[in-house]
């Protein structure tokens, strides 16, 4: 058994222990692909998986618009309210942070292990939801930037 398989098994069990179906499912799918020797699929996931995942995330967020569950006049009023303006600022900052996180993960992909462990800590002790490694990487990039700035 390779180190990668052992690591995926550990992540699988950690996903079960933390009641994180997303982590357990991802680890299980990768483990099955590795054991099935479907390396070409793993390469495709490595190259395009993030984009495909983000597409599905955007689809799930935009479904209320497609289903006409929102009244557009109310949408405009809400967007221009103080909460809506803060949501706009939050969205802009979050996407910027995600971009910085993606850059950080490309430079140092080993950081993903710490982000997974940190996500598990957040799930177990803080009642968090594991939405994805990009925001964790973005926050890590911000923390590193602050540390470099303080030096």
Record field, number of beta strands: 0
Pick out the low-confidence regions. Answer: none
User: Quick one: overall form?
Assistant: globular
Order of helices and strands: HHHHHHH
Distance between the termini: 44 Å
Subcellular location: Cell membrane
Organism: Desulforamulus hydrothermalis Lam5 = DSM 18033
Keywords: Cell membrane, Membrane, Transmembrane, Transmembrane helix
GO cellular component, one term: plasma membrane
Which features does this protein show?
transmembrane helix; 0% strand; 7 helices; mainly alpha; single chain; 151 residues
What does this structure look like?
The protein is an all-alpha fold. It has a domain at 71-151. It has helices spanning 3-17, 21-35, 39-66, 72-79, 82-107, 111-126, 133-150. The chain starts with a helix and ends with a helix. The mean pLDDT is 86.
Provide a short characterization of the protein structure.
With 151 residues, the protein is mostly helical. It contains 7 helices and no strands. The mean pLDDT is 86.
